[in-house]
UniProtKB/TrEMBL annotation:
Protein name (record): DDE Tnp4 domain-containing protein
MF GO annotations: metal ion binding
Cofactor(s) in the UniProt record: a divalent metal cation
UniProt keyword list: Metal-binding
Domain DDE Tnp4 residue range list: 2-111
Species this protein is from: Aphanomyces astaci (Crayfish plague agent)
Pfam families reported for this sequence: DDE_Tnp_4 (PF13359)
Length: 130
């Protein structure tokens, strides 16, 4: 298996949310219910709120469940990042450039860690194309 560039990997990622046409050059941002309206500024995905005295449709319930599952993965990644590298949890007292360098290094190393120890079992196959 040959080397795969980040660009090739990024173009293989499913990119079909509702805001794709409005913000074609942005990645989606998973946001919580409190960020309703974020879609006006960025490609933000939020769960659908239940209308007052109303109910969500089955499709909306499924979309919220998928969103929640994806959001858990993000939280798990940040949890692993903080558990592996204590300096990411500390209050920053360094220069901004140093802080960015250390943080980016920690994120890169955590990505490698996730490749060998996926955040959930079903994600293991997703790393075979790297």
């Amino acid at each position: 298996m040959g080397s795969t560039s980040d660009f090739e990997i990024d173009t293989d990622v499913s990119d079909n949310d509702a805001l794709r046409d409005k913000f074609p050059s942005q990645w989606s941002v998973l946001a919580e219910k409190g960020y309703q309206g974020i879609q006006e500024c960025v490609r933000g995905l939020t769960p659908v709120k239940r209308p007052r005295h109303g109910h969500l449709t089955m499709e909306q319930e499924r979309a919220n469940a998928k969103w929640s599952s994806d959001r858990v993965i993000v939280e798990n990644f940040f949890g692993r990042l903080k558990r592996l590298w204590g300096l990411v949890s500390d209050k920053y007292t360094w220069k901004k450039d140093e802080c960015n360098m250390y943080f980016q290094t920690c994120v890169a190393l955590t990505n490698v860690h996730v490749r060998f120890k996926p955040l959930r079992n079903v994600d293991g196959e997703g790393y075979t194309h790297y």
